[in-house]
Design brief:
Length: 261
């Protein structure tokens, strides 16, 4: 194989939402794909669609990435089959709306396992390979909520704050090794996240909701332009600026009203 022929895009959480859209947009560019998620049937259906529409190579791996052991096994499998991951899309994540003390401890810890621990493990393993090749791209899917603590999203917003700051640091650490690390910070998007997170959709949230296509496009463009981070959508950019420019008591109170909490 040539380097281009053995260059793969690995998308986690690929069975729905942003993950599925990342797969479609990279397939449209002719890129070979490794799709990872827990739901095998959805992955296989997406793989068939992409092979038929774009004539690209697609590998499907069913995996529960909340287990570090599974992540190590996935990395070893790809290494053993000489599959070179040039682009890693760290998209797998879990969110839940609700008062911290009203949710089971297991739910909060599961969020930390997937949103923080597994993302860290995926990044450590694949970034090491990229540094050795002096080439690679890693996109971290954070959130607009990563800019502040949000009532009834305490663990989720804190977890995404970790993702953003982790990404910022690695962007500077790895850029001289030929590895680009970029954080994507989407706001409210029509991905099915709200339903799975039991999130209340207020009129304000509905008004700023974005479709996944432009969000993913912004992430891909920022990654391949070598940017540190990107906030897609004009309204979301305003919220990010407001967070930087106002006292915490003001913007956190405002965000609580927007979120209907």
């Amino acid at each position: 194989m040539t380097d281009r022929e053995n260059s793969w895009v690995l998308v986690t959480g690929a069975s729905s939402g942003f993950g599925k859209e990342f797969a479609r947009q990279y397939a449209a560019k002719g890129r070979s794909l490794i799709l990872v998620a827990r739901r095998l049937a959805e992955l296989e259906a997406l793989a068939d669609e992409l092979r038929n529409r774009f004539a690209v190579d697609v590998i499907v791996r069913q995996a529960d990435l909340s287990s570090i052991h599974v992540i190590v096994g996935l990395h070893q499998y790809l290494h053993d089959h000489n599959l070179v991951v040039d682009v890693l899309i760290n998209n797998a994540g879990y969110g839940l709306q609700g008062a911290f003390l009203d949710e089971p401890l297991e739910s909060s810890l599961a969020m930390i396992d997937l949103d923080i621990a597994s993302l860290t493990a995926m990044t450590r393993l694949f970034a090491d390979d990229m540094r050795a090749r002096r080439k690679g791209h890693i996109l971290m899917v954070a959130s607009l909520l990563s800019f502040q603590g949000v009532k009834n999203f305490a663990v989720y917003s804190a977890a995404k704050a970790f993702v953003l700051r982790f990404s910022d640091a690695l962007h500077r650490e790895l850029k001289h090794d030929g590895v680009v690390v970029t954080a994507l910070c989407p706001g409210m998007s029509d991905t099915g996240f709200a339903a799975s997170a039991r999130q209340k959709l207020t009129p304000a949230l509905k008004g700023v909701m974005m479709q996944p296509q432009p969000v993913v496009r912004a992430g891909i463009n920022a990654l391949h332009a070598g940017r540190m981070s990107v906030v897609p959508g004009f309204a979301n950019k305003l919220i990010a600026v407001l967070t930087w420019a106002t006292p915490r008591r003001f913007h956190q109170s405002l965000m609580a009203k927007v979120m209907g909490v």
